[in-house]
Design a protein that fits this description.
The complex is a heterodimer of chains A (278) and B (285). By secondary structure, chain A is α/β, with parallel strands linked by helices. In chain A, 33% of the residues lie in helices and 24% in strands. Chain A has helices at residues 3-7, 62-70, 109-115, 124-137, 153-165, 183-200, 211-217, 248-266; strands spanning 20-31, 34-46, 51-55, 77-82, 85-86, 94-97, 171-175, 203-208, 220-225, 230-236. Chain A is globular and about 50 Å long. With 285 residues, chain B is mostly helical. In chain B, helix 3 (69-82) crosses helix 11, helix 4 runs parallel beside helix 7 (151-175) and helix 6 crosses helix 7 (151-175). Chain B is flat. Classes of the chains: A alpha/beta (278), B mainly alpha (285). At the A-B interface, strand 6 and helix 6 of A face helix 1, helix 8 and helix 9 of B.
Chain lengths: 278, 285
């Protein structure tokens, strides 16, 4: 089956910026002297401005794939390119938000965000304005001078999102950014992230194991199967935005996705056929 | 804590009145804490001092071996007044200042290089460990032959004593900065210098200061050892000379001064350390 052809079917028009091409990517790690295959022959196209969710159980390599796209893991087979340029190392054109906020504890919120601009080609004044604007964007006005330990988990993650966006990357990678938050805060930040995505009009790739989060946020949900990590199914979600969790279409797709995940688990041989959009 | 709840608890700090009240409350609580701490610190002296007084009054030990506290105090006052004590302490302080300064600087450079580079660590650590295993006083006989018994000897021995803990803590501190923070720097394309300045050094400051404080303590210990063996001035010399003359009051005065200077210098380092880590001591909600 021609996977690539199917991957190109996207629900969102291509803005021509922040396009991502993942071609036949495989990645192995050596664990205790034995090679472990994390990803096998993963191909994926993301259109500019699209919101793509990588969904799968732990061990499916979704975080590894995100780290490869970020440029944090130099060695892999296959190719990854952004807007036609092969990825080599990290770039200010790709922001990343990790599961833990990873704010530097010795720096205030505004200093943490400003550190993201160290190598940006901007004047000091433009940097100050960018920091202030991004603090406002994530709703942290009044907390610019707070240290990370003074923030709640949700606020720290907002600051991390601001830091990930401050360089105005065309692609924002999010590695289970809300995984460590309580349900209420998570729900609020999911709505916030939708708003920011609509506002910034950039490409976002989010990794999660939360099906509700995936169908709420994604234009497409790429379901990965584990051991070795590979694309198992792709769901296109055309529900209008802003979306509501209780929307009938979303609930139906959510159930389909859950079923797909269940299939993947029973079918350990990895032979799950890739189906078209639900 | 939810964002909203935190917002309401954090926001009053922006108003001056609430800020002042909060600070004054914090100050009085801090004073109380300090007093309690001081109380605990004084318990041991409060037990020992009466025993000392009673013991000397009843002649439990000959006066040549354990002088009366008031005699020690008297000697202390005499030696302060004559400037003798200041002179000896001055010699010792200068030696520690130079020795510690050189040892700590060399230790910071060596430790940083070992923490930053796997290769430097591989090459340097075995030799360093071997040197570290031989205590500073054990270097004195060899160093004496090489350097004579002048100031150079003292400074080298003291520097070596300070060097070892500074290297160990600096290399460990820098090597243990979480990979997660390094990755954040990588995503922002930090240069090596930016990584050092904004990620590695701030992250390594607590262990580095632990090393510096150990280094200073070791420098004092080495000072006394080297002055005991090869000196005609300084607090360590005062100890030997006092013992030889059976002027135990002088010995005790020298011990007290060494202890006080060591304590004060450690406190100074602690204050600098706290100043560099305001983010740590700021009140947690």
């Amino acid at each position: 089956m021609n996977v690539a052809a199917q991957l190109r079917t996207t629900a969102v028009p291509d803005h021509g910026q922040g396009r991502l091409e993942v071609r036949n990517v495989s990645k192995s790690f050596v664990v205790n002297g034995a090679p472990v295959e994390a990803l096998r022959d993963v191909s994926l196209d993301v259109a500019g401005g699209e919101f793509v969710v990588l969904l799968g159980p732990s061990g499916c390599g979704k975080s590894t794939l995100l780290r490869l796209i970020a440029g944090l893991e130099p060695e892999f087979r296959g190719s990854i390119s952004q807007d036609g340029n092969a990825i080599a190392g990290t770039s200010l054109d790709r922001g990343i938000v990790f599961q833990e906020p990873r704010l530097f504890p010795w720096a205030t919120v505004s200093q943490n965000i400003a550190l993201g601009l160290k190598n940006a080609p901007l004047s000091d004044r433009a940097k100050r304005e960018a920091v202030a604007a991004h603090i406002t964007l994530v709703g942290l006005d009044g907390f610019a001078q707070a240290y990370p330990h003074q923030l709640s988990g949700g606020m720290a993650q907002r600051a991390a999102i601001a830091r990930g966006l401050v360089n105005r990357p065309r692609l924002l990678l999010l590695d289970e950014p809300f995984g460590a938050l309580d349900a209420l805060t998570r729900a609020r930040l999911q709505v916030e992230l939708q708003r920011i995505w609509a506002h910034e009009r950039i490409t976002m790739v989010l990794v999660t194991h939360d099906v509700d989060e995936a169908v709420l946020l994604g234009d497409r949900v790429i379901v990965l199967a584990p051991r070795p990590g590979r694309v198992s199914r792709i769901f296109a979600i055309s529900a209008p935005r802003p979306r509501s969790r209780t929307d009938d279409d979303l609930v139906r797709i959510r159930n389909d996705v859950l079923r797909a995940l269940g299939d993947g688990e029973e079918d350990g041989s990895g032979g799950t056929p890739i189906s078209g959009p639900a | 804590m939810s964002d909203a709840a935190l917002r309401t608890t954090l926001e009053p700090r922006t108003t001056a009145v609430a800020g002042f009240r909060r600070i004054s409350g914090r100050v009085s609580a801090a004073v109380l804490r300090q007093l309690t701490k001081l109380g605990w610190l004084l318990i041991l002296p409060a037990i020992i001092l009466p025993i000392w007084i009673v013991g000397t009054n009843h002649g439990w030990l000959p006066e040549q071996i354990l002088p009366r506290p008031q005699d020690v105090l008297h000697t202390l006052r005499d030696m302060l007044a004559s400037g003798e004590l200041a002179q000896h302490a001055g010699y010792s302080l200068r030696r520690v200042a130079f020795g510690f300064g050189i040892g700590a600087a060399a230790g910071l450079i060596t430790g940083s290089a070992m923490g930053l580079s796997r290769r430097v660590d591989d090459y340097v650590r075995p030799l360093f460990t071997a040197i570290a295993q031989v205590p500073a006083p054990a270097w004195i006989p060899l160093a004496m032959l090489l350097l004579g018994i002048g100031e150079g000897l003292k400074i080298v021995v003291i520097a070596k004593a300070a060097f070892v803990p500074v290297v160990m803590n600096t290399s460990a501190g820098i090597g243990n900065v979480p990979r997660a923070f390094i990755e954040v720097g990588e995503t922002f394309r930090f240069t090596s210098l930016q990584m050092l300045r904004h990620v590695v050094l701030p992250g390594a400051i607590p262990p580095i200061f632990t090393g510096l404080r150990y280094g200073l303590t070791h420098a004092w210990i080495a000072l006394v050892s080297v002055e005991l063996l090869a000196s005609s001035e300084g607090l360590g010399y005062l100890l030997v000379w006092g013992r030889q003359m059976f002027w135990l009051d002088t010995v005790l005065v020298a011990m007290i001064v060494i202890g006080v200077i060591g304590f004060v210098s450690d406190k100074i380092l602690a204050v600098i350390e706290t100043g560099l880590q305001r983010w740590r001591i700021d009140d947690v909600q």
